[in-house]
Amino acid sequence: MDENRVSRLNKAGPVRGPVVYWMSRDQRIHDNWALLFAQELAIESGEPLIVVFCLVPEFLGAGSRQYGFMLGGLQQVEAALRPYRIPFHLLEGAPETVVPKFVRTLKAGALVADFDPLRIKKLWKDKVKRDLRVPFFEVDAHNVVPCRLASAKQEYSAFTIRKKINRLLDRFLTGFPPLRKQETPAPENRPVDWARAAASLTAGPEPAVAEWIEPGEKAALKALERFIREKLSGYAGTRNDPTAGGQSGFSPYFHFGQLSAQRAALETACSEADSRSKEAFLEELVVRRELADNFCHYNPAYDSFDCFPDWAKKTLDEHRQDPRPYTYSLGEFESASTHDDLWNAAQLEMVRKGKMHGYLRMYWAKKILEWSPDPEEAVRTAVLLNDRYELDGRDPGGYAGIAWSIGGVHDRPWAERLVFGKIRYMSYNGCRRKFSVDEYVSGIQSLD
Ligand SMILES: Cc1cc2nc3c(=O)[nH]c(=O)nc-3n(C[C@H](O)[C@H](O)[C@H](O)COP(=O)(O)OP(=O)(O)OC[C@H]3O[C@@H](n4cnc5c(N)ncnc54)[C@H](O)[C@@H]3O)c2cc1C
What we know:
Blueprint: E1 6-8, E2 19-23, H1 33-45, E3 49-55, H2 64-81, E4 88-92, H3 95-106, E5 110-114, H4 119-130, E6 136-139, H5 147-150, H6 158-172, H7 194-199, H8 217-230, H9 235-238, H10 251-255, H11 261-269, H12 275-298, H13 310-318, H14 330-334, H15 341-353, H16 358-370, H17 375-389, H18 396-407, H19 428-434, H20 437-445
Parallel strand pairs: 2-3, 2-5, 3-4, 5-6
Antiparallel strand pairs: 1-6
Bound molecules: flavin-adenine dinucleotide.
Flavin-adenine dinucleotide (FAD) binds next to helix 10, helix 12, helix 16 and helix 18.
């Protein structure tokens, strides 16, 4: 594999002992560069490889919907590693305590983690690093072009990062070597008690589990195959119509790392779908998704007003005192009690299904700006609801999407108007011109 996917997080010299892969963002066994790198390291040093996942009882407001999906996938990771004779351990508690303790107890020789641009994951790694006396590596297993390499700074827009990604695409958009059966015996461990692990979480029973999507790597690969066979042709024409079912529905799989975006890109590139749809899908899958990672990696304020570009802060400041035709509280937004049937339906789609259509996510967030007392509160409301209800919430795609909608991130100034200033506006009638609002609203109302 290309060694530029790998970063050294500390300076510890070589130590003999098993290699530990601390799986976090990339929860799959195939097409996973971090796992492949850890295995390579283990084979080179004649030591066994062990995979651990660290389960924390509370994570950025995730509820049983998100935890249930994740644990379902991890259960499959444990089972899928068994034929490869690679043990899987579920650690419970704060990573900064349990990961270094596991490394010490096992007398491990190296720790490998996967890349994640979110603040909390960076903080975990910083703290783990302090107590670690063995080499600590980080591998970007999530992006086709490794985030640190694609660009060394926050990119201004899709236009500026596209060129940088495209320049490196041939080098990084390669096939994956297979995972190998482990030859060096690893210390035995007991199977994970998944029911007990689930009971240890503090998340309540709401929001309900999403029924439309099955968790895990196997289901994700099947969904990929089905999408390419049945839906990819036509994606360019249908993806922006919430009544057409044209989107892939992969974002929960990508968020939990149950599907590799690189695998999806490889299969898309060699499919026989029409080239306009292939291009449109790859633009979202690679350029927009990796732009979101770039944004969160280089802008640690990614979920607040502070991350907005100067022109957007200025224009929003100038319009703070503008009269708002409607203002709603968090509770009114959450219970879908606004005057707008389209907005309410989009909110209900998210609450009931755990996935709002992509086109409506923009409308939804922009209306939260229009109907909140100030932009700071608008961002807080959007982030809180998005992370509470979306199955793919707490993702760079969400933080970038909200910052784009409310704060002009990756966008440019538009014609000035009340409340929005120069932030791009979206209207109810504009949606009516694009798709059948009535059909969408009645479809959502019929969901139980
Ligand atoms: C206000 C707002 C909130 C959002 N919240 C989230 C979120 O919480 N989690 C999340 O993953 N995405 C979020 N997005 C981005 C995007 O809407 C979703 O990724 C997409 O709708 C997911 O559905 P899909 O997988 O069926 O998409 P498809 O259209 O099938 O696209 C395939 C993949 O491309 C990527 N992608 C598509 N659109 C975007 C985009 N605009 N930005 C970045 N990547 C993209 C995703 O990884 C997606 O799975 C948000 C966008 C906005 C405007």
